Amino acid sequence: MRPDILNPIFAEITTLKGIGPRLAKPLERLKIARIKDLLYHFPSGWIYRKQVSLLSESDVGQNIIIRLVITDHRNSSRPRGPLRIFGSDSEGNYVTLTFFGRNGGWARKQLPVGEERVVSGKLERYGDELQIVHPDHMEKPGSKAQPALAEPVYPLSEGITSKRIGQLVADGLTRVPELGEWIEPSLLKTRGWSPWAQALAAVHSHDNSAHRDRLAYDELFSSQLAMQLVRQALDRRKGSSVAGDGRLVDKLKLPFELTDAQKRTISEIDGDLRQSRPMLRLLQGDVGSGKTVVALITLLKAVEAGMQGAMLAPTEILARQHYESLRQMLSGLPVNIAILTGRDKGKPRESTLMGLADGSIDILVGTHAIFQEAVQYKHLAVAIIDEQHRFGVSQRLMLSRKGAGVPHLLAMTATPIPRSLALANYGDMDTSQLDELPPGRTPVETLVMSEERLVQLVEGVGRHLASGGQAFWVCPLVEESASSDLAAAEQRAHQLSLRFGDKVALVHGRMKGPEKDAVMDKFAGGEAQLLVATTVIEVGVDVPNASLMIVEAADRFGLAQLHQLRGRVGRGAEKSRCVLVRSAQIGETAKARLALMRETNDGFRIAEEDLKLRGAGELLGVRQSGESPFNIASDEQIREMIGLAADDAKLLLERDGGLTGPRGAAARNALYLFERDAGVATLRSG
Ligand code: ADP
Ligand code: MG
Q1: What is the bridge-based pairing of β-strands 116-122 and 63-74?
Q2: Atom of ligand 1 nearest to the CA of 289
Q3: Which of 84, 263, 327, 664: disulfide with 659, CB 3.0–4.6 Å?
Q4: Ligand 1 centre from 437 Cα, in Å?
Q5: What is the mean pLDDT of the chain?
Q6: Average of pLDDT values for 569-598?
């Protein structure tokens, strides 16, 4: 349960004064539901003002704050002309306050002749006059709402103003409780950071990166702490020591030698399996680096020890592909392998479930279905998770509840993750890297082409198909909406089929499993030669004869994603090409990103550089989904502070593993504040 002290800021935003149905919508669009969300809605910029007592002290073009006496109202002689209100400073110099349209009536009431007002706005020259058009503030001297020297500008949504958000924030800040400090005192000191509540208020009153860093650090720290707590809980639960005797692995007949990287990884995994402390290991290996065989050998070690292994794939297509390739590699060995996906129903499903429960099935491959409640294993010792982007801490925790002991876990990914983000997402895991591709691969040649040359491109594709080749045609990401993606893909498929007839097939994310499989089979079998697709082909999918890939609007993709896509070609003996089609007009950063794709095939380099380029601040289209688990910390802050946060969390747990001391108790608040409750839950159960 969340500590009571946090309740005031977890209260619904509607508990603040003056939030009616009219503000509810824009706030919802800004994802502000609770007071806490509002307080973490940080300004995106600032208006700076100069306080002057005389007009002569300021320059035209400046935002000023000045006290004026209102001397006259003057309607325009023209029908729809502006209302002009004159104000005089203490030396009798005048400025015209100008109001257009319906603002006039209201301004007249706000600025009665003879009264004093503190006015702020941008000073301009109009003919011989000084003027301020629609001042931002017109306050009675001494009233509460005086214009600030620095006024925050908030990210907005239609129907709410920055000023209104500022008022709500001010109100929200009065609900902020005093919380104990969870940051290591020495760190606080070296960084010059303020206590949490102060930093939170300061972020809304002036521009200072230290305050923002502190608040971002809080988030990084809580996530690292939660992760390490889950790990700590997992470590306390015993798994089974898996010591294979080699009787199956030695008999595997592979058509190739393992690479050194594969051998090293397998021995790292073997070392983990022999411990009763459950393995929690991330295997990173670029597309084509040969992760599947590492997975197979890991599974076989469980079977050698008389236990079971399971492998989870993110999609039905991939599950079937894995099942087929594992089955082939296992041919001749006394190993019983089965597949289970959401599509398996009735009798076959029943018999698979029986086989798992009585231990006659040694290895299970499948989709999420394989870890559902109803699936009982006799003795699951190893679980492998392939390309699971959304494999978060809570899923790791869930898996640990499966079966008698906690299974050893290996997560595999081809998504190159920069080091800082790996720590952010998988800081609790050990890592292995397949940093070497099997020999004999010819790197994919990458070209960048403007969309203006689409016609020539289609001709080129025509020649490729005519010579018996196959190709992927990936359609652009349109905003983040799946339905518009689909429309674009359908349209493109239609156009291409006018040219290439039934050589063209279309696959997209909205298709049902069997329908999708049918298309993929058609393509894999060579019946279809040009596969038009949305990004569903991103992972897996092995069609060695497809040696050409076109990616439309490539500048809208994340680089890691492009790299993944490109990995779909270059699987056969033939030289492969990837054509990145860019929009006609693109910025410098976008150009640099595409150039990087042309220059290197090294996924890790791409990921690191991409992160840096994005740090440059240009708007780069779709943020790569699922990669940052943070709402507050920016990519740059993650990069700079995540290591620190990991060490800090570790140190705290070494000193106070139960989080019972004063700093530990404060850290619990931080976990709740950032909704890393899974971390706290381990403390209660453990
Ligand atoms: P990924 O890491 O992308 O999952 P795969 O496991 O699918 O890669 O392997 C890609 C291809 O490389 C497969 O056809 C596989 O048989 C082959 N392969 C794997 N290891 C080696 C090796 N050591 N030498 C040669 N080919 C290999
Ligand atoms: Mg793979």
Answers
A1: antiparallel
A2: 2
A3: 664
A4: 8
A5: 88
A6: 89
How many percent of the chain have pLDDT more than 70?
92
Ligand 1 centroid to 384 CA: how many Å? Answer: 17
pLDDT at residue 368 greater than cutoff 90: no
Q: How far is the CA of 226 from the centre of ligand 1 (A)?
A: 35
Counting ligands in written order, the one closest to the CA of 257 is 1
CA of 291 to the centre of ligand 2 (A): 6
Q: Does 12 score more than 80 pLDDT?
A: yes
Distance from the CA of 270 to the center of ligand 2, in angstroms?
20
On whether the CB atoms of residues 663 and 180 are closer than 8 A, the answer is yes
What mean pLDDT do residues 268-289 have?
A: 91
Question: Is it the case that residue 625 has pLDDT exceeding 80?
Answer: no
Does this model's pTM top 0.85?
A: no
pLDDT for 666: 96
Give, in words, the CATH class of 241-434. Answer: alpha beta
Question: What is the CATH superfamily name and number for domain 445-600?
Answer: P-loop containing nucleotide triphosphate hydrolases (3.40.50.300)
Query: 50-147 belongs to which homologous superfamily?
Result: Nucleic acid-binding proteins (2.40.50.140)
Alpha helices (H) along 244-379: 260-273, 291-304, 316-329, 346-358
Residue 480: φ, ψ to 5°: -120, 25
Mean pLDDT of 154-169: 92
Q: Give the binding-site residues of ligand 1, using a 6 Å CB cut-off.
A: 256-259, 262, 285, 287-293, 414, 438
Question: Can you tell me the distance from the alpha carbon of 449 to that of 446, in angstroms, rounded to the nearest whole number?
Answer: 10
What residues does each domain of the chain span?
A: 4-45+160-177, 50-147, 241-434, 445-600
**Do the first three CATH levels of 4-45+160-177 and 445-600 match, i.e. the same topology?**
no
Identify which ligand lies nearest to the alpha carbon of 255: 1
- Name the residue with the closest Cα to ligand 1, atom 10: 288
Out of 1.10.150, 1.10.10, 1.10.1330, 1.10.260, which CATH number does the structure's domain 4-45+160-177 have? 1.10.150
**How many degrees, rounded to 5, is the angle at CA 78 between CA 76 and CA 82?**
45
Q: How far is the CA of 4 from the centre of ligand 1 (A)?
A: 54
Return the pLDDT at 622.
Answer: 32
pLDDT at 520: 85
In angstroms, rounded to a whole number, what is the distance separating the alpha carbons of residues 268 and 283?
10
The ligand placed nearest to the CA atom of residue 287 is: 1
The minimum-distance atom of ligand 1 relative to the CA of 434 is 2
Q: Report the distance separating Cα 581 and Cα 552, nearest Å.
A: 5
pLDDT at 145: 79
pLDDT attached to residue 49 = 95
Which amino acid would we find at residue 531? L
pLDDT in the model for residue 510: 77
